[in-house]
Amino acid sequence: MAGYILQQIRDQVRNTVELDSTDIPDSVIDLFVQEGFDRIVSDQPRWSFYETNFSFTTVTGQRAYTFASISSTLGDIDGVEHSSWLLLPISHQLAQGQYAGSNVTGTPTNFSVWNNSLYLWPTPSAAITISVYGYRNPTDWIAAGSGTQPDLPTVFHPLLVLWALSRVYMQQDDAQMGQLLRNMFNEQFRVIKSTATRLLIAEPSIVGGTRGSVFSMLPARLRYPFDF
After folding, report:
1. E strands of the chain, at which residues?
2. Domains of the chain: which residue ranges?
3. What does the pLDDT look like over 150-190, one tens digit per residue?
Protein backbone atom coordinates (compact mmCIF):
# COMPACT_ATOMS: atom_id res chain seq x y z
CA MET A 1 0.00 0.00 0.00
CA ALA A 2 1.08 3.57 -0.65
CA GLY A 3 2.20 5.44 2.42
CA TYR A 4 1.08 8.82 3.67
CA ILE A 5 3.11 11.96 3.99
CA LEU A 6 2.49 14.26 6.95
CA GLN A 7 0.38 16.70 4.93
CA GLN A 8 -1.92 13.89 3.79
CA ILE A 9 -2.45 12.88 7.41
CA ARG A 10 -3.31 16.48 8.31
CA ASP A 11 -5.71 16.74 5.37
CA GLN A 12 -7.49 13.49 6.23
CA VAL A 13 -8.00 14.62 9.81
CA ARG A 14 -9.40 18.01 8.80
CA ASN A 15 -11.62 16.60 6.05
CA THR A 16 -13.11 14.04 8.43
CA VAL A 17 -13.99 16.52 11.16
CA GLU A 18 -14.84 19.25 8.60
CA LEU A 19 -12.63 21.87 10.22
CA ASP A 20 -9.94 24.05 8.66
CA SER A 21 -6.43 25.04 9.69
CA THR A 22 -7.79 27.97 11.70
CA ASP A 23 -9.79 25.60 13.89
CA ILE A 24 -7.06 22.95 14.06
CA PRO A 25 -3.57 24.30 13.36
CA ASP A 26 -0.86 22.04 11.97
CA SER A 27 0.94 22.20 15.31
CA VAL A 28 -2.02 20.61 17.12
CA ILE A 29 -2.49 17.80 14.59
CA ASP A 30 1.25 17.18 14.56
CA LEU A 31 1.22 16.83 18.34
CA PHE A 32 -1.55 14.22 18.16
CA VAL A 33 0.21 12.38 15.32
CA GLN A 34 3.39 12.30 17.40
CA GLU A 35 1.43 10.77 20.29
CA GLY A 36 0.15 7.98 18.04
CA PHE A 37 3.60 7.42 16.60
CA ASP A 38 5.13 7.17 20.08
CA ARG A 39 2.48 4.66 21.18
CA ILE A 40 3.31 2.39 18.25
CA VAL A 41 7.08 2.66 18.64
CA SER A 42 7.06 2.12 22.41
CA ASP A 43 4.85 -0.98 22.17
CA GLN A 44 7.77 -3.22 21.14
CA PRO A 45 11.42 -2.84 22.17
CA ARG A 46 12.65 -4.69 19.07
CA TRP A 47 10.77 -3.56 15.99
CA SER A 48 12.42 -5.23 13.00
CA PHE A 49 12.15 -2.13 10.83
CA TYR A 50 14.63 -0.31 13.08
CA GLU A 51 17.31 -2.97 12.77
CA THR A 52 20.62 -1.58 11.56
CA ASN A 53 24.38 -2.04 11.69
CA PHE A 54 27.33 0.31 11.97
CA SER A 55 31.10 -0.02 11.82
CA PHE A 56 33.70 1.97 13.70
CA THR A 57 37.43 1.87 14.40
CA THR A 58 38.62 1.37 17.95
CA VAL A 59 41.20 3.53 19.67
CA THR A 60 44.24 1.77 21.09
CA GLY A 61 43.84 1.47 24.85
CA GLN A 62 40.22 2.67 24.88
CA ARG A 63 37.65 0.25 26.29
CA ALA A 64 34.38 2.24 26.30
CA TYR A 65 32.59 3.77 23.31
CA THR A 66 29.38 5.74 23.70
CA PHE A 67 26.51 4.91 21.38
CA ALA A 68 26.68 8.48 20.07
CA SER A 69 30.35 8.07 19.12
CA ILE A 70 29.47 4.97 17.07
CA SER A 71 26.45 6.61 15.42
CA SER A 72 24.15 9.46 16.34
CA THR A 73 21.15 7.22 15.57
CA LEU A 74 22.21 4.08 17.47
CA GLY A 75 19.64 3.17 20.11
CA ASP A 76 20.53 -0.34 21.26
CA ILE A 77 23.07 -3.08 20.58
CA ASP A 78 22.36 -6.77 20.01
CA GLY A 79 25.63 -8.07 18.61
CA VAL A 80 29.25 -7.09 18.00
CA GLU A 81 31.60 -8.53 15.40
CA HIS A 82 35.30 -8.25 14.61
CA SER A 83 36.56 -9.59 11.28
CA SER A 84 35.18 -13.11 10.97
CA TRP A 85 34.01 -13.81 14.51
CA LEU A 86 31.36 -12.58 16.89
CA LEU A 87 32.27 -11.15 20.26
CA LEU A 88 30.45 -12.91 23.09
CA PRO A 89 28.25 -10.78 25.36
CA ILE A 90 29.19 -10.72 29.02
CA SER A 91 27.55 -9.21 32.08
CA HIS A 92 29.06 -5.77 32.64
CA GLN A 93 29.43 -6.42 36.35
CA LEU A 94 31.12 -9.76 35.68
CA ALA A 95 33.49 -8.17 33.18
CA GLN A 96 34.45 -5.45 35.63
CA GLY A 97 35.22 -8.04 38.27
CA GLN A 98 37.15 -10.23 35.86
CA TYR A 99 39.26 -7.38 34.50
CA ALA A 100 39.40 -5.24 37.67
CA GLY A 101 42.82 -3.68 38.09
CA SER A 102 44.05 -5.40 34.96
CA ASN A 103 45.95 -3.51 32.29
CA VAL A 104 45.78 -6.44 29.91
CA THR A 105 45.09 -5.44 26.34
CA GLY A 106 44.55 -7.53 23.25
CA THR A 107 41.99 -8.40 20.61
CA PRO A 108 38.51 -8.11 22.16
CA THR A 109 36.61 -11.36 22.59
CA ASN A 110 33.72 -10.09 24.73
CA PHE A 111 31.51 -7.04 24.95
CA SER A 112 29.14 -5.52 27.46
CA VAL A 113 26.68 -2.64 27.31
CA TRP A 114 26.27 -0.18 30.15
CA ASN A 115 24.75 3.31 30.36
CA ASN A 116 24.46 3.69 26.58
CA SER A 117 28.08 2.72 26.05
CA LEU A 118 29.73 -0.31 24.46
CA TYR A 119 32.61 -1.88 26.39
CA LEU A 120 35.16 -4.17 24.74
CA TRP A 121 36.99 -6.83 26.75
CA PRO A 122 39.96 -7.00 26.85
CA THR A 123 40.79 -3.42 25.97
CA PRO A 124 41.84 -3.17 22.30
CA SER A 125 45.61 -3.19 21.87
CA ALA A 126 45.37 -1.73 18.38
CA ALA A 127 43.00 0.11 16.08
CA ILE A 128 40.61 -2.49 14.67
CA THR A 129 37.30 -2.34 12.82
CA ILE A 130 34.28 -3.36 14.85
CA SER A 131 30.79 -3.96 13.42
CA VAL A 132 27.80 -3.33 15.65
CA TYR A 133 24.35 -4.82 15.05
CA GLY A 134 21.33 -3.40 16.79
CA TYR A 135 18.51 -0.91 16.54
CA ARG A 136 18.46 2.72 15.51
CA ASN A 137 16.36 5.43 17.08
CA PRO A 138 13.31 6.61 15.11
CA THR A 139 13.85 9.74 13.05
CA ASP A 140 12.19 13.03 13.95
CA TRP A 141 10.16 12.81 10.76
CA ILE A 142 7.52 15.38 11.74
CA ALA A 143 10.19 18.04 12.18
CA ALA A 144 11.45 17.18 8.69
CA GLY A 145 8.36 18.77 7.15
CA SER A 146 4.97 18.18 5.57
CA GLY A 147 6.34 16.11 2.69
CA THR A 148 7.92 13.46 4.91
CA GLN A 149 6.51 9.99 5.50
CA PRO A 150 6.27 8.50 9.01
CA ASP A 151 9.31 6.48 10.06
CA LEU A 152 7.15 3.35 10.09
CA PRO A 153 6.12 0.73 7.51
CA THR A 154 3.16 1.97 5.47
CA VAL A 155 0.78 -0.53 7.09
CA PHE A 156 0.97 1.61 10.25
CA HIS A 157 0.25 4.96 8.59
CA PRO A 158 -3.58 4.79 8.79
CA LEU A 159 -3.25 4.23 12.53
CA LEU A 160 -1.74 7.68 12.90
CA VAL A 161 -4.84 9.18 11.28
CA LEU A 162 -7.10 7.24 13.65
CA TRP A 163 -5.17 8.34 16.72
CA ALA A 164 -5.11 11.99 15.65
CA LEU A 165 -8.85 11.90 14.89
CA SER A 166 -9.53 10.38 18.28
CA ARG A 167 -7.66 13.19 19.99
CA VAL A 168 -9.36 15.88 17.89
CA TYR A 169 -12.83 14.57 18.77
CA MET A 170 -11.85 14.43 22.43
CA GLN A 171 -10.71 18.04 22.15
CA GLN A 172 -14.05 18.94 20.56
CA ASP A 173 -15.85 17.40 23.56
CA ASP A 174 -17.16 14.45 21.57
CA ALA A 175 -15.89 11.81 23.97
CA GLN A 176 -18.02 9.04 22.49
CA MET A 177 -16.60 9.40 18.96
CA GLY A 178 -13.13 9.94 20.37
CA GLN A 179 -13.30 6.68 22.31
CA LEU A 180 -14.73 4.82 19.31
CA LEU A 181 -11.78 5.90 17.16
CA ARG A 182 -9.33 5.02 19.92
CA ASN A 183 -10.85 1.55 20.10
CA MET A 184 -10.46 1.26 16.33
CA PHE A 185 -6.81 2.26 16.66
CA ASN A 186 -6.23 -0.37 19.35
CA GLU A 187 -7.99 -3.11 17.40
CA GLN A 188 -6.25 -2.43 14.10
CA PHE A 189 -2.91 -2.21 15.89
CA ARG A 190 -3.61 -5.56 17.53
CA VAL A 191 -4.43 -7.13 14.15
CA ILE A 192 -1.20 -5.84 12.60
CA LYS A 193 0.83 -7.24 15.47
CA SER A 194 -1.00 -10.57 15.34
CA THR A 195 0.38 -11.19 11.85
CA ALA A 196 3.84 -11.50 13.34
CA THR A 197 5.66 -14.79 13.75
CA ARG A 198 8.29 -15.11 16.43
CA LEU A 199 11.49 -16.63 15.11
CA LEU A 200 14.09 -18.46 17.16
CA ILE A 201 17.75 -17.62 16.77
CA ALA A 202 20.90 -18.78 18.51
CA GLU A 203 22.00 -16.26 21.09
CA PRO A 204 24.52 -16.44 23.95
CA SER A 205 22.96 -17.17 27.32
CA ILE A 206 23.98 -15.36 30.50
CA VAL A 207 22.40 -16.66 33.68
CA GLY A 208 22.93 -15.19 37.13
CA GLY A 209 25.89 -13.12 35.98
CA THR A 210 27.78 -16.14 34.64
CA ARG A 211 27.73 -17.71 31.23
CA GLY A 212 25.63 -20.82 30.82
CA SER A 213 25.78 -22.97 27.73
CA VAL A 214 27.50 -21.17 24.91
CA PHE A 215 24.32 -20.91 22.84
CA SER A 216 20.68 -21.44 23.64
CA MET A 217 17.50 -20.94 21.69
CA LEU A 218 15.91 -17.70 22.78
CA PRO A 219 12.99 -15.77 21.27
CA ALA A 220 14.06 -13.13 18.80
CA ARG A 221 12.25 -9.95 17.87
CA LEU A 222 8.94 -10.09 16.05
CA ARG A 223 9.18 -10.77 12.32
CA TYR A 224 6.43 -9.24 10.19
CA PRO A 225 5.24 -9.87 6.63
CA PHE A 226 6.65 -6.50 5.55
CA ASP A 227 10.14 -7.81 6.42
CA PHE A 228 10.09 -10.16 3.45
Report:
1. 51-57, 64-66, 74-82, 85-89, 105-106, 110-114, 117-121, 123-124, 129-136, 197-203, 206-207, 210-211, 216-223
2. 6-46+140-197, 50-137
3. 999 999 999 999 999 999 999 999 999 999 999 999 999 99
